[in-house]
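Annex B.
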Amino acid sequence: MYKKVVCVGRNYVEHIEELNNEFPTEPVYFIKPNSCISDEIKVVDYSPMHYEGEICFLIENKRAVAVGFGFDMTLREIQTKLKKKGLPWERAKAFKNSAVFSEFVEFNGFDGLEVEVIKNGKFVQKGGVELMIYKPEFLIEDIDKIFGLEDGDIVMSGTPKGVGVVEKGDKFIGRILQKGRVLVEREFIAY
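Fumarylacetoacetate hydrolase family protein: predicted structure tokens.
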């Protein structure tokens, strides 16, 4: 059903600052193949894994027709090593089961969309469209121009500050809200 996943990096100022990254002069994109898509959090055994909660859009006819919650799982230590060498990030971002999604639901425009992540009962991430450097309308149009968007593609729009390590047994609640109303909520237990 789902096809490729196009991810937006460095789209929230405070997340850029928390990782000491450079500010982009244009959107940062990377792609996760279909083998990344999952609805479960599977902790890898070869490197520490970080969660990054995101507002995600399901594409049909080159536009966002549904919204969902997603985790862009990241092997941060591997990513840091690759970035220092100027090498691609795929080993750290496009590994199996690294794009974890809730169901996708209809929504009414981009205004007021927010993501929340609760880890083991504590709020760890919260951010919305108003905090994004590049807004969803622009991203979808730009991504289509560069990569082409097909029915069943997913756009992950970036993560706000508050990312961290995932351990086996961690319990997460991921939510997408619009103007304070919960559109979708999903519980995940890492194993």
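The chain has one domain: 5-189. The longest strand covers residues 63-72. Further annotation is deferred to the next reporting cycle.
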